[in-house]
Design a protein that fits this description.
This is Rhodanese-like domain-containing protein. With 160 residues, the chain is an alpha/beta fold. Helix content is 34%, strand content 12%.
């Protein structure tokens, strides 16, 4: 059995990552990069990198193919295009980038540190209406909100 972070780490052997400042430069060099945001719609609505395409992780694989309700034509046609996958912290995006590679995408990377790192580097984010997000206000969004029932019980015996 593997834990979530172990699964992410295993995928890093095959997935390249860009730091926010590297992605900023890549976007200047190649404005045709497809940014694929794999967070949930409510996360994207709160803030995202302008011009990114929302494709939630849960439908990614079917969104990459024709003839599905989830099909995203721009994504289907991007197998030869440079694609950078983004999420909140850079973990879901590693898993998604790995899936895209398995599905035949040739030039895929993940945004290391996710949009959290993008914000920390003072790069712009917009909300669902396309309005700039105050980066100081974004700090609350990036604060973890783990409920008491989501914490590991003190008497928990790990099955591994």
């Amino acid at each position: 059995m593997k834990r979530f972070l172990e699964l992410v780490k295993d995928c890093l052997h095959n997935v390249k990552e860009h730091m926010p400042w590297d992605l900023e430069e890549r976007l200047k060099e190649n404005p045709d990069i497809l940014l694929v945001d794999v967070r949930e719609p409510y996360e994207y609505e709160a803030m995202h990198i302008e011009g990114s395409l929302l494709v939630p992780r849960g439908i990614l694989e079917s969104a990459c193919e024709w003839d599905y309700e989830e099909t995203e034509p721009e994504l289907v046609m991007a197998r030869e295009r440079e694609v950078v996958v983004v999420c909140r912290s850079g973990q879901r995006s590693v898993l998604a980038a790995n899936s895209l590679q398995v599905l035949g995408f040739k030039n895929v990377a993940s945004l290391e540190t996710g949009i959290r790192g993008w914000k920390d580097y003072d790069l712009p984010l917009v909300d669902g209406e396309g309005k700039n997000v105050d980066l100081d206000d974004a700090d609350e969004y990036f604060t973890a909100h783990v409920r008491e029932d989501q914490l590991r019980p003190k008497d928990w015996v790990d099955p591994v």
